[in-house]
Amino acid sequence: MDLLTTLKKLQHAQADPVYTARSRSIILHTAQPLPPLRMLGRWMLRNVESGATLALAGLCLFLVVAGFSLWKSFSPLGIAQFDLASLRAEAQAIDIQIKLAGLAYEESTLPVAAALRSPSAALQITGSPQSPRTPNAAAGTAAAPVLPDKTATSTPVLSIDEALLKLSE
Amino acid sequence: MVDGERTIIENAVKGEASAFGQLYDHYQPKIYRFVLFKVSQREEAEDLTHEVFMSAWQRIRTYRDFGFPFSSWLYQIARNRIIDHYRTKKASTPIDAVDPEYFVAPASAPRAVEEKIEVERVRRALGKLKPEHQDVVIMRFIEELSIKETAAALGKTEGAIKLLQHRAMKALQELVD
């Protein structure tokens, strides 16, 4: 048999009619995709909410920037003076004088010991509430050890009680 | 070609389902056979043919008549679909998977057996050809497309199709012999 004739006999192959009918029906009942312009319209409509939010945010930002610019240009308060150079010059021109009204510091034991040595001074110290060491002495608590200093080595050291006794005389 | 095909195609491009239905009725058997000889399994051929026409229906709005027959557009979709099919599917089934009875027209008993054997030999040989030789043989000698239609469907020049056709038939004859 001729090859071409045999090839033509292969034309008899056909799809199952049931499959063909079903396939045709499915295809023709399938909706076609929308054309690009309509799809764009749908997309815009779908995203209108977020779009509106973005537009509003943009408008607010624009108003803030524009408002600030206008205020800077036309305000009688002169925002133009807010530039750094003038501010720095102004700051340098200010005469700043700081006075220390009071200075508290912890005294060393040296003046306390010296004060205790002289009765008049001791009196002053005991009368002064500002001395940090005297409250203990005034309260008569256990003899507070007075730290020895270099100058006190030749003079006898008095206890608080003795000092008080002397003062009472 | 269907009578008044141009008008039918224009209506189908506008989205008229009945017009596309007419095109389906006319071209589905051709596309189905083309796919069947390429994939060799009836179920796969049916599925792929369905996908080809579904794709054609969904893309018909983009169809432009450049003077080529509508069938060449469908064959292009079918070829691409088959290429995708073989890309995703590693194992292929031999062409023997289809019952030989399926291809032969009813005939008288003694001649039918002889014909069946001959057709089966040619079909097996066709399955062993290179893909582009298969395309040319199916389109030119089974579906009886013109050189111009075949060239449009395969995206080649008419001269290239003539050359391919010659080589394909020579290779097929050698395989049959």
How would you describe what is shown here?
The complex is a heterodimer of chains A (169) and B (177). Helices cover 59% and strands 0% of the residues of chain A. Chain A contains 9 helices and no strands. In chain A, helix 6 (109-117) packs across helix 7. The longest helix of chain A is centred in the middle third of the chain and has 27 residues, at 48-74. The longest helix of chain B has 23 residues, at 17-39. In chain B, helix 5 (109-128) crosses helix 8 (158-176) and helix 6 crosses helix 8. Chain B is globular and about 50 Å long. With 177 residues, chain B is an all-alpha fold. The relative contact order of chain B is 0.11. Chain B has 8 helices and no strands. Chain B folds into 2 domains: 1-94, Orthogonal Bundle (Rna Polymerase Sigma Factor, Chain: A); 102-177, Winged helix-like DNA-binding domain superfamily/Winged helix DNA-binding domain (Arc Repressor Mutant, subunit A). Chains A and B meet through helix 1 and helix 2 of A and helix 2, helix 3, helix 5, helix 6 and helix 8 of B.
Helix and strand element order of chain A: HHHHHHHHH
Q: What is the H level of CATH, i.e. the homologous superfamily of the largest domain in chain B?
A: RNA polymerase sigma factor, region 2, helix turn helix motif
How many domain units of chain B? 2
Question: What is the C-alpha radius of gyration of chain B, as a whole number of Å?
Answer: 17 Å
Annotated CATH topology of the largest domain in chain B: Rna Polymerase Sigma Factor, Chain: A
Question: Approximately what portion of the residues of chain B adopt beta-strand conformation?
Answer: under 5%
Q: What is the CATH first-level class name of the largest domain in chain B?
A: Mainly Alpha
Shape of chain A: elongated
The secondary-structure element order of chain B is HHHHHHHH
Proportion of β residues of chain A?
under 5%
Note the quaternary state here.
Answer: heterodimer
Distance between the termini of chain B: 35 Å
Distance between the termini of chain A: 158 Å
Helix content of chain A: 55-70%
Helix fraction of chain B, binned, reads over 70%
How confident is the prediction overall: mean pLDDT of chain B? 85
Low-confidence stretches of chain B: none
